Amino acid sequence: MIPPVMGGSTPSDGERDLFAKFRDDPDTRDWVVLHSLDIAKHRSQVSGEIDFVVLIPSQGVVCLEVKACRTLKVESGGWKYGQSGTWDMRGPFRQASEAMHSLRDQIVQARPELRNIVFWSAVAFTHMSFRMESAEWHRWQVLDQEFLKSRGLAAAVHAVLRNARRRLTETPSARWFDPNRQSPSPKEVGALVAVLRPNFESYESPRDRVARAAADAKKYTEEQYRALDFAEDNARVTFSGPAGTGKTLLALESARRAAESGHRTLFLCYNELLGKWLENEARSLGPAVEVDRIASRMLKVSGLNARDDRRFWDSELPRAALSAIRDDDGASFNSFDELIIDEAQDFLRGDYIDFLNCCVKGGLSRGRIKLFGDYERQSVYRAAELDLSELKDGWIPDLAVVRLRENCRNLPRVACLARDLGGLAPDYRKILRQDDEVDPTMIEFTSDTDQQRKLLDVLVELRAEGFALADIAVLSMTPENMCMIRARAAGAFVTNSGESPRSGGVFSSSVRRFKGLEASVVVVTDINDISSNEVQKLMYVAVTRTLGRLILLMNSQACREYKLLKSKQK
């Protein structure tokens, strides 16, 4: 396949389906299939395009036009594809034939020795039966839905060339054709590719895309460092912005600057996975920066052992930790010159704030404080007891607020989906990364078994495209992550649901556990409902985790609700 993956600007599900069939059919293993070839020297138009150019050794070349319409109307020589299509006065067979002849002219001009290779055209109707007869085409040039299902794509394309060669044998004017000559030979196939390949859009491998996405995100986040420079004169400041605006990396940079200034710094977050990642990233900063999770910090201070009890985490532990600090008069614990908090929206509870007030010299009202949070949409663990204004009024009266509105992580189409789900107001001021013209992929499932099968298909396809397992995160909307558990049980992939999202296999997690982290490819599973505000908040977190590809597995109800949500946002 050239290119080896579908281009992002291919909207046709018919083309995508045929691409996968060409790629995966064992009967096409010695073929070369080129997708979406632009023809600069078209016979009758300024330029043209062929959906697929199929090079079959010893047989010839088929130029295949794909029509993925469900309905078709033909009147007075005009063709209308689908209910909302415009009228096409050429029709698909003439379109394919003209493109094929233009392509052959171009090849023969460049390589005259290839002039005796058989070229023919055909039209595939991937989603409907086609029974029309006309002198403009032969019946065997039609690959409709019924024929493709009964014969398979490889056999159907073979049949086109078999019939074309027979037709040429029976045509007296085609004296150039030798039915005994098996062409193109492997050498001639290579020559054809050498002529045709430069016309294709340059292909960027998945590994290159992953590296570029990470580099882009890093570059654009570093441009956000000016926000830290702006706030340098404020001892107490919060950086507020939606997902994708670089808050976590800004918090890391803030910790680096604190260490360089000689400040003993406590760097806290809420999420366990994020905490482990931050701890690893901050290791180079030395002992001056101590990274911890709020729950872990409270356990250390209180001396209690963890219990699997919601009431313990919500009330008993915070009270015990605060009591331990007060009993000690802060002598052992109030030793940090600076407090940095990522995921600050998850800390907006009175008992947490009281505890934090005892963790930094001068307390929250007079100490050096930097908070990084999405106070609008990312509090997914529990409803916040306080809002930002109440935090200022009750604990930090002179807290400066720096607004971050530039998305430096996500591609534009993912950022727009996040905006729709998050109801962001105001919207991102700017999306810094360039559009790759790839929409998020929505895959509908009808049952748990169907979802498992489709998830496995997605993972197989991503591997076939060249993505490493460690590039992929499968995030479940359910805490149990049942979809990925089933996939692991099927033995399809060695998956990793352990301590690090980047330690080898496909990483599986709930959306909540993955908050604050990112991956090159994110597959969101178990999307059964997106009508409620809470589910939309969780979806907003999920979709903004990706640096590149986003694939959503939704049931039928969620698909309908998503379309309704999109219509309301317009």
Report a brief summary of the structure.
By secondary structure, the chain is of the alpha/beta class. It is elongated and about 105 Å long.
Describe what you observe in this structure.
With about 575 residues, the protein is an alpha/beta fold. The chain folds into three domains: about 15-200, 3-Layer(aba) Sandwich (Trna Endonuclease, Chain: A, domain 1), CATH 3.40.1350; about 225-405, Rossmann fold; about 410-570, Rossmann fold, CATH 3.40.50.300. The protein is built from 20 helices and 22 strands. The chain has a six-stranded parallel beta sheet with strand order 11-10-12-13-9-14. Strand 15, helix 15 (about 410-420) and strand 16 (about 430) form a beta-alpha-beta unit. Helix 16 packs across helix 17 (about 480-490). About 40% of the residues are buried. The model is unreliable at about 40-45 and about 200-205 (pLDDT under 50).
Question: What brief labels describe this structure?
Answer:
alpha/beta, Trna Endonuclease, Chain: A, domain 1, Rossmann fold, six-stranded parallel β-sheet
- Silhouette: elongated
| Major beta sheet summary | 6 strands, parallel
Biggest sheet, spatial arrangement of strands:
11-10-12-13-9-14
Poorly predicted segments: 40-47, 199-203
CATH class of the largest domain: Alpha Beta
Topology:
Elements: H1 13-24, E1 32-39, E2 48-56, E3 60-67, E4 72-75, E5 78-81, E6 87-88, H2 92-110, E7 119-125, E8 142-144, H3 145-151, H4 153-169, H5 186-196, H6 206-223, H7 225-230, E9 236-240, H8 247-260, E10 265-269, H9 272-281, E11 289-293, H10 294-302, H11 310-327, E12 338-342, H12 350-357, H13 363-366, E13 368-373, H14 388-394, E14 400-403, E15 406-407, H15 412-422, E16 430-431, E17 441-445, H16 448-465, E18 472-476, H17 482-489, E19 495-496, E20 506-510, H18 511-514, E21 519-527, H19 533-543, E22 546-555, H20 556-569
Parallel strand pairs: 3-7, 7-8, 9-13, 9-14, 10-11, 10-12, 12-13, 15-16, 17-22, 18-20, 18-21, 19-20, 21-22
Antiparallel strand pairs: 1-2, 2-3, 4-5, 5-6
